From TrEMBL, chain A:
Protein source organism: Streptomonospora alba
Domain ABC transporter, chain residue ranges per copy: 26-271
Residue stretches spanning the membrane: none
Family: Belongs to the ABC transporter superfamily.
One term of GO molecular function: ABC-type amino acid transporter activity
Record's compositionally biased regions (Polar residues): 1-10
Primary location recorded for the protein, binned into one broad class: membrane
Protein name: Amino acid ABC transporter ATP-binding protein
From TrEMBL, chain B:
Example GO biological process: amino acid transport
Keyword Hydrolase assigned: no
Localization per Swiss-Prot or TrEMBL: Cell membrane
Listed GO CC annotations: ATP-binding cassette (ABC) transporter complex
Species whose genome carries this gene: Streptomonospora alba
Keyword Oxidoreductase carried by entry: no
Protein name: Amino acid ABC transporter permease
Record's bilayer topology term: Multi-pass membrane protein
NCBIfam families from the UniProt entry: ectoine_ehuD, HEQRo_perm_3TM
UniProt entry keywords in alphabetical sequence: Amino-acid transport, Cell membrane, Membrane, Transmembrane, Transmembrane helix, Transport
UniProt record similarity statement: Belongs to the binding-protein-dependent transport system permease family.
Primary subcellular site in the record, as a coarse category: membrane
Length: 278, 212
């Protein structure tokens, strides 16, 4: 269903109209997200540098997945502004003011962002090849031959060259998720969002998917925002870990510090709970 | 009343003529219902237009097709052929039903599919044409098939607006020859001869698509 990003022209606060500096690829500026009376993000401020790998951790309901969904424009925000590459994502400029983005603006603005979902969300009616070429061909206008070449290269990268003509239903969960990673990368996004990408997988399939992501993290300079419960993966790939609680950043820092020497009581108890269960 | 086989045989060509009209009305009307129903199902999701479309087609769905036939027949200019009116009314009436079937099919497509489309910024035509409808259609083929049979069985209503379909012919034969039994019996058998094989085919489709 098309989300109803209405065109209601609510002007936003003066503070939000300052454009972010060049050192930021993503900036959340006083972002508010509510579901009914439940405030998920409470005037959240944070930014991500180009090429940075950020892991978002926190208890369920802390708003970390919501951040990814807002960046992918799967949901609309209730306050503040989200900036990507110095341009407003949640809003658009009209007559020197920022107004709520319409569907056309969103379709253009989110092309620099790719997302991999917990449930893969491959198109079951298309072959693996079509899944990977669909976006480049029909959204970016890439020529079919080139899109095919991209698909072959990426499927090689994720180790599934031999499955290019298979259908998603013929693949294991881990294989489907690797195709989904290839599909997201085929769009050549600057920012890759990973939403609990191993949570739906059987334990023995997790490592394969994480290896692929480690490889991508090492060989590209793509910016990654990652929600995960895989703490060792987070430690390996991320530059910075953000601990969320109740719609705010409770604590942030390099992974060694957050995992090795957390300061906040909430971080300590969360990490303890995760380690005991994982 | 006794059965006259010779007379029964003699009226078969006339009844078959009627059967051709019946099938014609069913097939064309069904195509109208399939296409219009799809348009209705999609339009219902559009802001502002959606609620209007909903009310109009709920009205059509909840009033008898016979009333609609007589109403449109009375209003239409005399230059419009009764068969055209009959096909249009049947098609629009059944579109109200097929729209419901499509709607359930569309709603059955997982939310994640829409989200993946958004993540790839696919244009709406691709979202509907390449992702949503191909998945929705598979689920709705069996119920759509059942409406084909329902519609076929509703064609005798066209009799009310002077369309020379099979029941109209049977009635005409009865009036002319003062014998009704042969014509009505044969008409019934002809209906059966078409709908039973259709039902079997639809069962098969149902099994084939239910497996996925």
């Amino acid at each position: 269903m098309q989300q109803s990003e209405s065109q209601s022209t609510g002007a936003v606060g003066a503070r939000s109209e300052q454009e972010p500096s060049n050192g930021e690829i993503v900036r959340f500026d006083q972002v508010v997200k509510r579901y009914g009376s439940n405030v998920v993000l409470n005037e959240l401020d944070f930014s991500v540098a180009p090429g940075e790998r950020v892991t978002l951790i926190g208890p369920s309901g802390s708003g970390k997945t919501t951040i990814l969904r807002l960046l992918m424009t799967l949901e609309s925000i209730d306050g503040g502004v989200i900036w990507v590459n110095g341009e407003p994502l949640s809003h658009m400029r009209r007559g020197g003011k920022l107004v709520k983005a319409n569907e056309t603006h969103l379709r253009r603005a989110r092309k620099s962002i790719g997302m991999v979902f917990q449930q893969f969300n491959l198109f079951p009616n298309m072959s693996v090849r079509k899944n990977v070429t669909e976006g480049p061909v029909h959204s970016l206008g890439v020529a079919k031959d080139e899109a095919n070449q991209r698909a072959e290269d990426l499927l090689d990268l994720v180790g599934l060259s031999d499955k290019i003509d298979a259908h998603p239903t013929q693949l294991s969960g881990g294989q489907q998720q690797r195709v989904a990673i290839a599909r997201a990368l085929a769009m050549r996004p600057q920012i890759l969002l990973l939403d609990e990408v191993t949570s739906a997988l059987d334990p023995e399939l997790v490592a394969g998917v994480l290896d692929v992501l480690r490889n991508i993290a090492q060989t590209t300079d793509i910016t990654m925002l990652c929600v995960t419960h895989e703490m060792s993966f987070a430690r390996d790939v991320s530059h910075r870990v953000l601990m969320f609680d109740e719609g705010q950043v409770a604590e942030e820092g390099p992974p060694e510090r957050i995992f090795g020497d957390p300061q906040e009581e909430r971080t300590k108890s969360f990490l303890k709970a995760v380690l005991e269960n994982g | 009343m006794n059965w006259d086989t010779e007379f029964a045989i003699s009226i078969i060509p006339q009844l078959l003529q009627g059967l051709v009209v019946t099938i014609q009305a069913t097939v064309i009307g069904y195509v109208v219902a399939l296409i219009l129903g799809l348009a209705v199902a999609i339009l219902r999701r559009v802001d502002y237009i959606g609620p209007v479309v909903f009310v109009v087609f709920e009205f059509i769905r909840t009033t008898p097709v016979l009333v609609q036939l007589l109403f449109v027949f009375a209003l239409a200019p005399p230059t419009v052929a009764p068969l055209t009116i009959g096909i249009s009314v049947l098609g629009v009436h059944y579109a109200a039903y097929t729209a419901e079937v499509y709607r359930s099919g569309i709603e059955g497509v997982a939310k994640g599919q829409w989200e993946a489309c958004r993540a790839l910024s696919l244009p709406p035509l691709r979202v509907w044409g390449a992702v949503v409808m191909p998945q929705a259609i598979r689920k709705v083929i069996p119920p759509l098939g059942n409406y084909l049979i329902s519609m076929f069985k509703d064609t005798p209503y066209l009799f009310a607006i002077t369309v020379p379909e099979m029941m109209f012919m049977a009635k005409a034969i009865g009036t002319e020859a003062f014998r009704s039994m042969e014509a009505y019996t044969l008409a019934g058998l002809f209906f059966l001869a078409v709908s039973v094989p259709s039902a079997v085919i639809i069962r098969r489709l149902e099994r084939r698509y239910a497996a996925v």
